[in-house]
Specification:
Number of helices: 8
Largest sheet: 6 strands, mixed
Order of helices and strands: HEEEEHEHEHHEEHHEHE
Number of strands: 10
Distance between the termini: 48 Å
Length: 235
Amino acid sequence: MLGEFPLGDDDTLIARELVESAVGRAIVAPRNEPIYWGVDVARSLYRDGSSLCKRKGPVVLEKIKRWHLQDVMLVTGMIKKEWDETPPTQRPEAIFVDVIGVGAGVCDRLAELELPAVGVNVGENPAPMTKAVKLRDELWLKGRDWFMTKVVSFPDDPDTIEELVTPTVVYQSNGNAKVESKDDMRARGALEGRSPDGADAFNMTFARTGAIIAGAMTGNQRKKGPLRRSNMRRV
């Protein structure tokens, strides 16, 4: 009898096999593919870490950066350092920052420094016709769908891989997906009480095609200056 091995537990959102098979896969991102950075700022600076993911289309460019810093301006400084050390042709079109909690201060300061920072509130509603409860759920689904194409490349990053394959998902009566929350993951002892910071930063790189985009995203508008939260619009 021939068949396929199961990809994971029935209630796990992203199958481990999908993620692990993407590690080191020989994929070259198209030259004109935009680069996006995703930033997850620690909700509790004393307990969690802040993370930065860099993605160019089908390729996550490097291992997720992680910092345990107790000041939002220090987090901002590390992101600015990454920007300054990145060749201009390899800098991101947008830096998506989760602005819930202390992330708002990081986003505002990055914008003041004239970096293309775009604030994203993952607690908002998802894009129309999206089968998700909130934007956070939508971004997790987009991350899963990215891996499901099987033409993507992910770095050898065991911590982030474990975070990606940990959350479970339930489907409501209307078919909308609700991904397990950080608090619920901690409650059941997943990730040894840690927060999935690296996975959240990875998911933030998909905010460009999510419920919030920046009005300054087009080429002509980028010439006018950096992206700012005041330019954002709902789609």
